[in-house]
Every structure is written in structure tokens, then in C-alpha cells.
Design brief:
By secondary structure, this protein is α/β, with parallel strands linked by helices. It contains 22 helices and 15 strands. A five-stranded parallel beta sheet has the order 7-6-5-11-12, sandwiched between helices. Strands 2-4-3 form a three-stranded antiparallel beta sheet. A three-stranded antiparallel beta sheet has the order 8-9-10. α10 packs across α11, α18 packs across α21 and α20 packs antiparallel against α21.
């Protein structure tokens, strides 16, 4: 009998059937109902393919010892045709080993998980907003966090079939443009349309230095922005030139990082959409007069939030005003089921106030989520930001490219490539991105160059090299052929196979939790398990049918690594 990796048996359907059998036994033998039997993968492969702690969880309700309940579950599960062995472990865990046939039949689900799902046309879209740089400033290294976290979440959402809309919400409005206009007039040495982004940044930094000696500059900046808001033609032309210069330079970096957006809309887009929101808030009594005539929103004492300003005393709008208009526009035009804002922890209070304000306004809202992330610092202190300057993202990517070239040269003939410079770019970009996405986004992150460019640890080069190794083996095998039935699996084959079977669940876990490190760490685990298999079990020199099966296993590993890397915005070369 030949085996093909088609979707013959859904991995999760099989476990659902096992769960149903266990739940029936719990109900009939112990009178325990409404209990969910969950399966987890044991950390030690010698403890089986899956385990459930349900006997421990329902012992009190059943009035029986966990061991007694577990013994009954082992008896019931041992009768299932897909289970080779079941046993009680520890105080009451139930461990199971699946039959070789059952494991191999489920590999079709791995192949399916590598294919993007058909879009859920009948579902409302989900909006993911990320990157959100300020116009007139270069992308700093801190921008990579929102940018790649957001893109990876958008990628996995699309891969799983969700109708996904991505938006880059630019900071292209506000008093900073008034300040820059004043700086250009006072100290600019050339017209704005021939300035570079570095020129604009230098002027902006100088404004803030000069204001320490001349506080009236602040008033001049506010006055210039007021004129800009009122439509002054010269200031509007100046503003558009600044936007164009910034976007042209930013796009180069977005291309390097594989970042794309469906819409790039600045705060200025909502300039004519704020007044209706302001009027509605006043009519509903949500926006009330505060100190000096400002419009504010007050929150309950239980919220522990200070009042939020919606309109300043001088009539100027702020971030909150524009974000309220943004939500109303998106709800009325895109009609999403959810909006996720990928923004750093420093904005936590802002989003709490924003979400509380729209609830007070009584709008029909989608699910609103602030996908928060911490700060990033470098283990290499020489990469620290200096006062009055920013560590530019371009400089970090260039540094990654340079360091990757050194690593490639150090490995000599062990690394094979037709284009060393291109490989250095792939490795460098991957190192920086993976260095972010492999860490828990809710925690502050430390980026270490040595770890990021290592071929031995949890890094992009390790992932890229493992993928290239797997592709090389498949190429040397002369392609894929049908394989005969396998009677048994080696320990390492079983290890890789079990890891592959987790892929679909990992993608769903990442999407549900908005945590990219779940996928990154899974890919590292797969690389580690595959390399352990590669080092212990012969592949091309194995006898049939083991040879063909192991080539198929290798090819499937390569496909999963590529699919996962693509979702994380990382390229994996076929040769390395």
C-alpha cells in the first residue's frame, strides 16, 4: 500500500473523537459532565504523543482519586483503533501513543496548514494598524517593533483566511509641522523640496534646542500650525513636500523589511471628520468644558483614569480627537469586526481613554484591542541612542548586513551561495526581525548581535540554514516518490512528525493571542528536532521505504519552515 500526504484524517478531529470517548467515560463511570478534555504535547517525547490532565482536574468533582479516574480513561482509550498504547503517569496524567498509521495519515493536515486558506468572504474584516511613524523624521529602530509585529499578525490573519485590512496611520498632523515651518524659515539653507529627511530632522532638533533660550518660538510654532489647519496655501505646500520626502525614504525601508499596507492614511485624512465627532460628544454630554475652556472627557473613579482632553483651550485638536474620528470613519466605511492597534506600552493610558470614550459615546463598536509591546534595547551599548539624535532603522539594517557578511566569510566553504551580498541582506534582515519576533512582545526586549546572527541557537540564520539543508536533501534525492506503508517509526522520526503536527494549532494560537513569538519559538523547535533527526537517522542512504518516507518528511519540514518564515516576514534561501 502506498502512502501520500493528503488530507485523509484531520489531526484535531481525531483528538476530538478521543476527547468524546474520554468525556463519555467520565460521565458514565463517575457522573462528571461538562468537562473539557484537553490534550497537550509532553515535554519529554518518551512520555507519549499526547497527554491530558483531566483526571486531576475532575477528581474533586467525582469524589475519586485522580489515579482511579486515570485508570478508567486508559482502559477506554486503549480500545481506540488510533491508539497504540495508553498509560497513567505521575499523580494522574494520561499519556497516549498513537499508531504509526494514525500519525502518518494526519500529515495531510500539515500540508494543508502550509496553504493559505480561502478568504472568509462572509465575515466582516479585521483591521490591523501598525508602524504609524511620524512624518518629517527618519524611521528609528524603535519603529521596527510595531512594524514587524503588526505585519506578522496581518500575515497570519490572511493565511488563516480572515478578511484582513492593514493600515499605516501616519503622524502627519500636529504642532510639530508648525515648529518645522518656523525652523525652516529661520535656519533653513535651502528650499524644502530639495531637503533630505536628515535635513528636516536637523531643523526639528535645532528648534527644540533654540526654544530653551527663546520660549516665544513655541508660540510661533503653534501659530504656524493654526494657519496650516486653516488652509494657508504656502504652509499646505510646505506640508505636502515634507510628507512626500518622508514617504519616499520610508518606502525603501518597508521594501527591505517586506512590509505592505492596504491603506496609508495620515491623521490629516481625518481633518474634516473631527468636527462632527466633537459636536456629537457635546450634544451627548460626553465632552464637557474643562479648565480654560478645553473640552474634556471624565471617567469613573473606578477606572483610575485622569480626564482626557479632546480639544485644547485654544481650539486645537489632538491625538484623541483624531483617533475618535478614525474609529467612526472605519466603523462606517469598512465595517470591521475588530480593530487592533499595534502600539507600544507608553500609549496604554491613551488607548484606555480612547476605548472608554467611544463606549460613553454609545457607538456600535467592533472589538477594539491595543496590541501592546515593550521597549527594545541593545546589548551592544555602542548602539544606544545619543541625546538629540535617534538610532535610525536604516543604520541598524546596514549594520546587520555588514555583520552578516563577516559571519558568512568566517564560515568559508560551509556556506554556499551565488550572491554573497544578497545572502548577507537576507541573513541581516532576518536576524533583526527574528530578534524582535522571537521575544514575548509584552516584555522589554534585549537585542544581542551575537545571538541574532548565530547558526546554533534560536535565530534567523539557524532557521534559514535548516531550511536550505532540507531543500538540498530533497534536491539530491531527485524529487519525491510514492512511498510504501511504514510499519514503525524511529524515535527521531516520531519526534519530527509530532512537531510538524503542531503547526496548524500554532498558527491559530498566534492569531488568537496576537503573539508572534509563539510561531518563532515553534520554528526553532522544529529546526532543533529536524537537525537531531538528520544527525541520527540516515536519509539518502536509508533502505526503502524509510528513504522515501524520510525525504517526504524533510520536504514537509522545509515547507513548514518557509511558510512560517514568510508569515514572520523573513526570507529563507534554498541554498546556503
Amino acid at each position: 500500500m502506498s502512502i501520500s500526504f493528503v488530507h485523509k484524517l484531520d489531526f484535531y478531529t481525531m483528538f476530538s473523537t478521543l476527547s468524546d470517548s474520554a468525556q463519555s467515560a467520565l460521565a458514565e463511570t463517575f457522573g462528571v459532565v461538562d468537562v473539557e478534555v484537553k490534550w497537550e504535547r509532553p515535554q519529554d517525547p518518551s512520555h507519549g504523543d499526547a497527554a491530558t490532565p483531566v483526571a486531576l482536574q475532575c477528581a474533586k468533582k467525582a469524589g475519586k482519586s485522580p489515579r482511579e479516574i486515570a485508570d478508567r480513561l486508559v482502559e477506554v482509550l486503549s480500545a481506540e483503533s488510533d491508539i497504540e498504547k495508553a498509560e497513567v503517569a505521575g499523580p494522574g496524567y494520561v499519556n497516549i501513543w498513537l499508531t504509526t498509521d494514525a500519525l502518518i495519515r494526519t500529515l495531510g493536515t500539515v500540508r494543508s496548514a502550509c496553504t493559505a486558506k480561502v478568504k472568509r468572504e462572509n465575515e466582516a474584516p479585521v483591521i490591523i494598524e501598525y508602524s504609524q511613524p511620524n512624518i518629517a523624521k527618519p524611521l528609528g529602530v524603535h519603529h521596527i517593533l510595531s512594524t514587524v509585529i503588526g505585519q506578522s499578525l496581518a500575515n497570519v490573519s490572511r493565511h488563516l483566511g480572515y478578511n484582513t485590512v492593514t493600515i499605516n496611520h501616519l503622524g502627519d498632523w500636529g504642532t510639530q509641522f508648525g515648529k518645522l515651518a518656523v525652523a525652516l524659515e529661520k535656519w533653513g539653507e535651502k528650499p524644502v523640496d530639495v531637503c533630505t529627511l536628515d535635513d528636516l530632522l536637523e531643523l526639528y532638533v535645532r528648534f527644540h534646542k533654540e526654544v530653551e533660550n527663546d520660549p516665544t518660538l513655541e508660540d510661533a510654532g503653534r501659530e504656524a500650525f493654526r494657519k496650516l489647519e486653516e488652509g494657508d496655501p504656502d504652509l499646505r505646500k510646505f506640508w505636502q513636500s515634507v510628507v512626500d520626502i518622508t514617504m519616499q525614504e520610508m518606502q525603501t525601508l518597508y521594501d527591505r523589511l517586506h512590509i505592505t499596507f492596504d491603506y496609508t492614511q495620515g491623521e490629516s485624512f481625518y481633518e474634516d471628520k473631527m468636527q462632527p465627532v466633537i459636536n456629537e460628544g457635546k450634544e451627548k454630554g460626553v465632552f464637557i468644558e474643562g479648565e480654560g475652556g478645553a473640552l474634556i472627557v471624565e471617567f469613573s473613579e473606578e477606572s483610575n483614569m485622569p480626564p482626557a482632553i479632546v480639544v485644547k483651550a485654544d481650539g486645537a485638536t489632538i491625538y484623541l480627537t483624531r483617533d475618535l474620528a478614525t474609529i467612526l470613519y472605519r466603523v462606517s466605511t469598512i465595517k470591521p469586526q475588530a480593530i487592533s492597534y499595534v502600539v507600544d506600552v507608553a500609549q496604554s493610558l491613551h488607548f484606555k481613554q480612547l476605548f472608554a470614550t467611544v463606549e460613553k459615546l454609545g457607538w456600535d463598536l467592533p472589538r477594539l484591542e491595543h496590541v501592546v509591546f515593550g521597549r527594545m534595547s541593545f546589548a551592544d551599548k555602542s548602539m544606544s541612542t545619543r541625546k538629540g539624535n535617534i538610532l535610525k532603522l536604516q543604520d541598524v539594517l546596514d549594520e546587520a548586513h555588514k555583520r552578516a557578511l563577516i559571519v558568512i566569510n568566517e564560515h568559508g566553504e560551509k556556506i554556499q551561495t551565488d550572491d554573497v551580498d544578497q545572502l548577507a541582506e537576507i541573513m541581516g534582515q532576518g536576524a533583526v526581525v527574528y530578534g524582535v519576533l522571537s521575544q514575548n512582545r509584552k516584555m522589554d526586549m534585549i537585542f544581542d548581535w551575537d545571538k541574532a546572527l548565530s547558526f546554533d541557537g534560536n535565530s534567523a540564520p539557524y532557521l534559514q540554514y535548516t531550511h536550505a539543508r532540507a531543500k538540498s536533501i530533497v534536491e539530491k534525492a531527485g524529487g519525491l516518490e510514492g512511498i510504501e506503508s511504514i510499519d514503525s517509526l524511529s524515535t527521531k522520526e516520531r519526534l519530527v512528525l509530532n512537531t510538524l503536527l503542531q503547526f496548524s494549532g500554532v498558527l491559530h494560537d498566534m492569531q488568537r493571542s496576537s503573539m508572534p513569538h509563539i510561531l518563532a519559538n515553534y520554528l526553532y523547535e522544529l529546526c532543533r528536532d529536524y537537525n537531531s533527526f538528520y544527525n541520527e537517522d540516515p536519509i539518502l542512504k536509508a533502505d526503502e521505504p524509510a528513504r522515501s518516507f524520510r525525504v517526504h518528511l524533510t520536504n514537509l519540514t522545509a515547507d513548514v519552515l518557509k511558510t512560517g518564515a514568510d508569515i514572520l516576514t523573513i526570507s529563507v534561501p534554498d541554498r546556503m
